[in-house]
Amino acid sequence: MRTGAAELRLRIRNGELVVAPGVFDGISIRMALKTGHKALYVTGAGTSASFLGRADLGFLSARDVVHVGSLASQLAGPQVPVICDADTGFGGAPQVARTVQEYWRAGIAALHIEDQVATKRCGHLDSKQLVGQDDFIARIKAASHARDQLCNADVQDRIVVIARTDALAGLGLDEAVSRLKMARDAGADVGFLEGMTTDAEVHRARSLLKDWPLLANCVTGGKSPLWTASDCKELGFSIAIFPTAGLFPAARALQHSYAHLLSTGIGAEAATDESRSVDVGGADPRGLRNFFVDMGLEDEVALDRLAADGTGLGAV
């Protein structure tokens, strides 16, 4: 039987677009599987919100993500690959290697590791701070080495290492592509250029990275266009993750029902009139930030300003 990693590699090799909705707990995993999805993405932002009740500002540990990723892989089985956020790898080279090992043992098919500093934040917030090229490539080398030590059998069964760079926003497209080229040479299987804002940037990146598979991060209310799965296929991506596809509707439905209970004495799920309807859509350009505000973003920023005199998180 193929592993989830082997299944993911096969689909990429066959030129399929792997579409993975964001999941963050047992209910979201079950609903994604029930509706027929053939891949899952364990979102760091969603896991931080659901598991910790905090905005995506580097609070997650590897264990937090493994908890959700392991559950997803158990419920989904190897025919539904599970892709997971791994933030910065959760430390230096030895810690990155351990992260790869722990994710693999949990049945996770792929993970992405980025070039932000340890006190990272969601890639679609502002003021991101990056490590140097050497530190980023050290992470990717450690991840690739750990991957290659996992299996003595078919290399296709090894976890897929995705190199993510957040360099575009602060350092420009050329630097972002340069970092991904080095990551590819260091052994990464897939590239992830975070925060692209136009189709032209995608075409430019793909032309410079040749035939290397790339991942699209389709975040509603983020910095990238509202790409559909069809758009991603046309643009030439190999993987398209939709981190907020379940997160935002779940949050809106919870808020609506709890407010309905407070005002009427019964939850919206039991209402018999139109008040039970929930508006879960509307591609609000500030939707992502507003969600993070609900998860305590402003409190964290205020504490950071108090402690670091404004030199830490910056204007997120």
UniProtKB/TrEMBL annotation:
Keywords: Pyruvate
GO molecular-function terms, A-Z: catalytic activity
Pfam families documented for this protein: PEP_mutase
Domain of life according to the entry: Eukaryota
Keyword rRNA processing attached: no
Annotated protein name in UniProt: Phosphoenolpyruvate/pyruvate domain-containing protein
Taxonomic source organism: Acaromyces ingoldii
